[in-house]
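Private note to self, pasted from the team thread so I don't lose it. Backbone tokens:
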């Protein structure tokens, strides 16, 4: 059977290209893609959420970050394995190709910023970067999945908090203040938020594949497959929104001739920039104002999220209780069982991502995905990690719990407790206005650093309101971030530790940034976090001797709150189990 990479190489020869870039990206720059846009997975077999492959006539390399090193080697054995940061693919190209080599790329699949960075990296080389009009992978992918036909639906104001017209009016004010006539948006999750729409075009993320142009008079053009919107939904969008077929997006961009258009080079594709420049639009660089407005959840979104977490917490409690006596359990059985409990929860729509259900060595892979070939049965003397979430009509959840299978070792308890201390440090942090997540990140790692340990992923990511489980611009991470945390932002708190080849630990709750409050005797008001996630943390993995009195008090107060908020929705046996699971740690 001819391999996809061989078909691609034959197509590259027809087009006189010496290499082709295959990023994990789609035309909308989504993290999670429709099946027909999974070109990297088709060519290489790699299914991770970040990376890029480079295919030449006789070589191929896969570039991923530390999260996916092992996964990449396993799924793409015919590709040279490279680190995305320490082994830049531009340098690899210069080494792999002869002078005058032509490197093809699809301008719809690379942001303008990434293209600029690539051009700068190749400057001085004898390589030519060639934009293709049609993607050569699409030409050879004969069984490519069809485009989704899932219907769009309105997100009720009851859960959205404000109307779409109100949101557009706010963005119009932002555009006027930025001296811009229009804004181009190609991120479906942003469009879903802005227009109060939800859909089913991507697994786990309720978006409609679409693009939009927003103008500073509050009018907008929405480019989408018309078949996805029924007459009532179109009517509900109002006369200020013109719904146009997605095939007319290019002509919509062309109509911005002589207009000042706000563009974000980190979010929009090179193709969009090419269209706007070709039309003679005046480009004003800036960040999409939708991002911060979306990140600051309103009262309805906050209350909906709290309610979703209460219901989701009951499902997690039932799962953890079941897990204690489960026989012949394995990773897939456990993931299915948790899904079964969640499906019984009112308002449940979907999981918020593919659950990471991992035991033993697999739990040491932060972004592991279990399947029939990797599935492991439970064995005593190890750890089980379950990172999962739910999509509900009124909110999105994301939670990770780690439990011991059998008696934990002292090393397991030590590492778990140090992760817990970092988790508590973030949860209990108080910080002034203007603080970024980068400034808080060290709090989560301090107790691991003390014994020469760390983890190779961020500590926190933003979360949407019945939208994407990964939502910017806020985050808690080592990497530089210019975005301060603001009241109403929801963000994860998920430090971890991973003993390669043995077991892994992660404790994750979602937290809400509270407004600043005065501190008695203090000089300035400070913000803090409200923990939204409600589920017990494994007490048998805690070495209480390593906890301070304040840390014990935080954990006991958290567990008391979990019991108080969930008990009434559980049956007698479930309440009894939860009472024991949330008993004081000392």
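Design output:
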């Amino acid at each position: 059977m001819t391999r996809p990479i061989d078909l691609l190489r034959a197509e590259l020869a027809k087009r006189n290209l010496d290499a082709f870039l295959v990023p994990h990206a789609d035309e909308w720059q989504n993290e999670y893609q429709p099946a027909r846009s999974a070109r990297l997975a088709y060519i290489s077999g790699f299914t991770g959420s970040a990376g890029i492959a480079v295919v030449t006539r006789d070589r191929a390399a896969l570039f991923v970050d530390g999260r996916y090193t092992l996964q990449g080697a396993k799924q793409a054995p015919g590709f040279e394995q490279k680190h995305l940061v320490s082994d830049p693919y531009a340098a690899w190209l210069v080494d792999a190709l002869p002078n005058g080599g032509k490197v093809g790329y699809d301008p719809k699949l690379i942001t303008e910023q990434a293209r600029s960075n690539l051009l700068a990296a190749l400057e001085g080389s004898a390589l030519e970067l060639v934009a293709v009009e049609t993607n050569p992978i699409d030409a050879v992918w004969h069984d490519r999945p069809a485009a989704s036909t899932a219907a769009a639906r309105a997100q009720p104001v009851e859960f959205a908090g404000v109307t779409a017209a109100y949101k557009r009016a706010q963005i119009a004010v932002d555009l006027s203040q930025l001296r811009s006539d229009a804004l181009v948006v190609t991120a479906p999750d942003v469009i879903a938020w802005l227009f109060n729409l939800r859909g089913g075009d991507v697994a786990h993320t309720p978006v409609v594949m679409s693009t939009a142009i927003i103008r500073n008079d509050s009018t907008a053009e929405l480019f989408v497959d018309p078949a996805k919107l029924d007459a009532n939904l179109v009517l509900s969008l109002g006369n200020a929104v013109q719904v146009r077929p997605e095939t007319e997006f290019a002509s919509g961009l062309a109509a911005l001739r002589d207009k000042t258009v706000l563009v974000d080079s980190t979010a929009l594709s090179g193709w969009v920039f090419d269209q706007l420049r070709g039309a003679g639009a005046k480009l004003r660089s800036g960040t999409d104002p939708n991002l911060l407005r979306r990140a600051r959840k309103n009262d309805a979104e906050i209350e909906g999220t709290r309610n979703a977490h209460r219901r989701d917490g009951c499902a997690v409690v039932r799962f953890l209780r079941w897990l204690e006596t489960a026989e012949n359990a394995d990773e897939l059985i456990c993931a299915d069982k948790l899904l079964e409990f969640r499906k019984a929860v009112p308002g449940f729509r979907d999981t918020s991502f593919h659950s990471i259900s991992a035991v033993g060595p697999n739990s040491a892979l932060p972004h592991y995905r279990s399947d029939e070939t990797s599935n492991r049965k439970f064995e005593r003397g190890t750890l089980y990690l379950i990172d999962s979430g739910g999509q509900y009509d009124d909110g999105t959840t994301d939670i990770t719990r780690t439990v011991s299978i059998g008696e934990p070792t002292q090393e397991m308890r030590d590492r778990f407790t140090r992760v817990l201390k970092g988790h508590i440090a973030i949860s209990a942090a108080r910080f002034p206005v203007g603080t970024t997540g980068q400034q808080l990140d060290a709090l989560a790692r301090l107790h691991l650093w003390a014994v020469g340990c760390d983890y190779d992923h961020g500590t926190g990511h933003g979360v949407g309101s019945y939208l994407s489980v990964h939502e910017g611009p806020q985050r808690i991470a080592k990497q530089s971030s210019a975005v301060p945390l603001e009241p109403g932002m929801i963000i994860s708190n998920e430090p971890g530790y991973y003993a390669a080849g043995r077991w892994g630990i992660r404790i994750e709750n979602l937290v809400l940034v509270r407004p600043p409050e005065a501190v008695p005797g203090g000089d300035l008001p400070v913000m803090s976090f409200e923990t939204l996630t409600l589920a017990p943390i494994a007490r048998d993995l805690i070495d209480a001797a390593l906890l301070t009195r304040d840390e014990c008090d935080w954990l006991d107060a958290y567990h008391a709150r979990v019991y108080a908020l969930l008990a009434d929705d559980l049956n007698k046996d479930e309440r009894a189990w939860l009472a024991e699971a949330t008993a004081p740690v000392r």
